[in-house]
Amino acid sequence: MHSVTKSNEKAESINSTMPANNKERSMMSNQCHSSTYQYSFRIVIKNEISSSTTTASKPDGIEKKKLKSIVNKYLIVDCLKGLKMLPSNSIQCIVTSPPYNKLGLREGSSYSGQIVYDTYDDDMDEHEYKRWQIDLLNEINRILKPNGSLFYNHKDRRYRHRDYPPEEFIIRSDLNLYQTIIWDRSCTANQNAAYFRPNSEKIFWLTKSSRSTVTAPTFYRDRLPECFKSSIWRIPPDRKNKHPAPFPALLAEICILATTDKGDLVLDPFAGSGTTLIAAANLKRSFLGFDISKKYQAMFKHRLATSNSDINMWKEFYVVEKIIDKRLRNGHVEYLLKWKGFDHNQNTVSEEEKY
Ligand SMILES: C[S@@+](CC[C@H](N)C(=O)[O-])C[C@H]1O[C@@H](n2cnc3c(N)ncnc32)[C@H](O)[C@@H]1O
């Protein structure tokens, strides 16, 4: 295992690569304590699959690959480097969840249920982590289509009797915070008696913004089952997935169904086991994923080869159905049948899918 550290890019050069955000600039310069703040972050690479430490380098120096050549692929590449390959205004939907930097926030002290990634140690200096995520979000603001959507899954972390909500850095990015969805996981490994059980995470629905405009995203709420039409989604974690920190396929599917059409391109820059990409493929969307682990890429390939485009979503959906109350459940099953094209009068299922 070795670490790759790069720390020689000045804050000015970062700002020149992406739309300036004055609020962010002044906040960062207050926090950096020095006008010669050195931008740095570290990726610890165990398997030496890539030494792709990336920085906010000149976008002009990187060839903008034709999207066609990288569509429906899972690339082993650093997320920022991957994003910089993409043309502006090219992606309809991104569903992603970064590492949460739990070890870094805790200054390296271990915690119960610690997440151990294959090629990443999740132990950045917290300030660098926030800067990294802001850079990433700003780059996403560039590549999103004007009516596109980013669903960014993160959660409030705790350390030393304090909550660290991700809003602290998200609102300092260029993106527009369109809505916050609460993901009710229904359970938690954290049973600390000193505070309420933290069994939720957040899904930040973020949209493109520029200095002068914020455009409303494409949104098809009518397609969704009733229990996902509100801003609290109850979805149990996927315990079958061998990745250390996956989100459930159903979560990705709801985001994709709500904001894309067949054929649209869906991206996950922290692809992991490829949950977002599988969901996109099952819903007949195109996909693109980045990660730095070949092991996770192999997991994805296996999942793609064995997934059944019709069954996955509904199997997961029925798990949700089981844990909601009976009255609602009946309503949802009714809705589900209607949505799948089931005609009660004729007792048939129409050929045409509704999404
Ligand atoms: C929270 S997991 C995402 C899991 C994914 N949503 C799933 O369902 O499988 C975060 C992922 O980010 C990857 N990662 C960490 N640093 C990265 C980087 N610099 N570029 C791309 N991926 C990175 C890790 O390998 C890990 O798979």
From TrEMBL:
Q: Which UniProt keywords apply?
A: DNA-binding, Methyltransferase, Restriction system, S-adenosyl-L-methionine, Transferase
The answer to whether keyword Iron applies is no
Q: Which residues form the Chromo domain?
A: 318-355
EC number(s) from the headed UniProt entry: 2.1.1.113
Q: Which reaction does it catalyse?
A: a 2'-deoxycytidine in DNA + S-adenosyl-L-methionine = an N(4)-methyl-2'-deoxycytidine in DNA + S-adenosyl-L-homocysteine + H(+)
From the UniProt entry, list the residue stretches annotated as the region Disordered: 1-27
Q: Name a single GO cellular component.
A: cytoplasm
Select a single GO molecular function from the record's annotations and give it: site-specific DNA-methyltransferase (cytosine-N4-specific) activity
Q: Name one GO biological process term.
A: methylation
* PANTHER family with a match to the protein in the record: RNA METHYLASE-RELATED (PTHR13370), TRNA (GUANINE(10)-N2)-METHYLTRANSFERASE HOMOLOG (PTHR13370:SF3)
The similarity comment for this entry is:
Belongs to the N(4)/N(6)-methyltransferase family. N(4) subfamily.
| Protein name (database record) | site-specific DNA-methyltransferase (cytosine-N(4)-specific)
Q: Which organism's genome codes for this protein?
A: Rotaria socialis
